[in-house]
Amino acid sequence: MIQITQIKLPYMHTKAALENKIRKTLKLSQNDKFTYRIVKKSIDARKKPNLFLVYSCQVSCKNEHTIVKRAKNASISIVNPKPYVYPQSGEAKLLYPPLIIGAGPAGLFAAYVLAEAGYHPIIIERGKSVEERTKDVVRFWETGVLNTASNVQFGEGGAGTFSDGKLNTMVKDPANRNQFVLETFVRFGAPERILYENKPHIGTDILCQVIANMRKFLLETGAQIYFETCATDFVIEEGRIKEVICNNNRFMASVVVLALGHSARDTFQTLYNLHIPMEVKNFAVGFRVEHPQAMINDVLYGRQEMPLPAAPYKVTANFPNGRGVYSFCMCPGGYVVDSSSEEKRLVVNGMSYSARNSTTANSAIIVSVNTKDFNGTDPLAGMRFQQELESKAYRLADGRIPQQLYGDYCINKPSCGYGDFSSNTKGNTAFSNLRGLLSPDVEESFMHGIEHFANIIPGFDRKDAILSGIESRTSSPLRILRNEEFESIIKGIYPCGEGAGYAGGITSAAMDGIRAAEAIIRKYKPN
Fold first, then answer.
1. pLDDT averaged over the chain?
2. What is the per-residue DSSP string for 47-81?
3. Which tens digits make up the pLDDT trace of 253-310?
């Protein structure tokens, strides 16, 4: 198969134009037949307002080696795509089906791989099915009545379900787990474009249905799923897991996959009390920042008459004080959402539907924090730091999302109204003063970051940019330690995903869940 990179065409072009470009690049005659598939597609706006699409395509035709040799073009090469391959199963005997705690991306993909390989896993999830969970989330946004077991953080699909369904990852994986994850999403209802988009996303609305379809498949293959079932204790004997005790059930277990998610704080405390090895981990905190999506589009695309997808951005900076400031989970055409999961604590996140058609862009603009910022150095110190911030944010607006215009934030003054545009939120809001939530050093870094990013995206520091607080769960505050076989020092426990401190997003968490499943497969034979 031939791969061609850097196929550049005007943004508005036909399918025939792409095919003609392939034919011309490979110097094929009109009689030479070929088939192709797009493997990557991205927008090139470097010469805005003139926009281009850049493709990488894989082409099948006769005499491929001769064609590549004749072309003498660095953008043309022979490739042999290798699909993801399940590992060969081991010989150790499993006394009980693998038990997976958590039905987020890591847990679902661990279950999917194990189910496909014939291991009939059991999945337990403290929250509800995605359909029932969605009802609880909408009710919370409308009324403020929180279900602490079924919300934006907890329930089938994990926290990423209500974020945007962003599927890009920086993880390089020669085993093609990344592609396997994307293909699995497509298998269960995601649009095929996610297989080649440079920054693929599904959208919360479509992702909910994809997850429901995935669950139906797991049940059909013999997996068992228990919702509203929270792990409350673990029985460990002679350095090995023996049993998992839940709020309404007990499970004998010889293999347990810990796919907890970054908000399972009660479970983190339980594991810490049981002396499961873990360590505190650096992360970042800050605010959701909203701008008009039209402004972002104009800056990144130039003024355009043609319809274009809502433009995303990514910004980052490092300052002499050692703080990194960067955008996180950017949501084009999105919403700021109340993502709280604990009583009298408030946290925000961002979300987009598949159309990405709201009037504002939002992103977390966050500042790195470390053990010097936490009260203590034990593994749970970062978790307590998050909880303190969320308690303060809750009190600022009596449980509503506290908001402030950036100009008022800079002069330490509460806001009393929006400027030239309004906020798009899911959940009730109130104007407040966000100064004092973060330490003076972090606040200073945040403002320096906004000012620096205005050099990259003019208007980023506009006085009526809307801040919403607080964004404190950008990643897990701890790491549950594991060896090269993905196993804890407690035999049979396999920590994985974002909650265990090994991933940062839907795709990377799913890939880590796959790796944990592979480790189990390599050691044990199907039950």
1. 96
2. ETTEEEEEEEEEEEESSHHHHHHHH--TTEEE---
3. 999 999 999 999 999 999 999 999 999 999 999 999 999 999 999 999 999 989 999 9
Domains in the chain: boundaries: 2-78, 99-279+478-523, 282-471
99-279+478-523 CATH pick, 3.10.180.10, 3.50.50.60, 3.40.50.970, 3.90.280.10: 3.50.50.60
Structure tokens at 233: 């204790």
Between CA 318 and CA 367 the distance in angstroms is: 10
CATH of domain 2-78: 3.30.70.2700
What lies within 8 Å, CB to CB, of 238 at 6+ separation is none
SS3 for 443? helix
- Counting every residue written for the chain, the total comes to 527
Contact (Cβ atoms closer than 8 angstroms) between residue 386 and residue 473:
yes
Residue 473's φ and ψ, nearest 5 degrees, are: -110, 55
Separation of alpha carbons 59 and 177, rounded Å = 22
Q: How far apart (Å, rounded) are the C-alpha atoms in residues 305 and 302? A: 10
pLDDT category at 165 given cuts 50, 70, 90 is: confident
Q: Closest Cα to residue 38, out of 198, 214, 235?
A: 198
For residues 179 and 194, give the distance between their C-alpha atoms in angstroms, rounded to a whole number: 10
CA angle (38, 41, 44) in 5-degree steps: 150
25, 61 contact by CB (below 8 A): no
Residue keyed to tokens 């088939």? 35
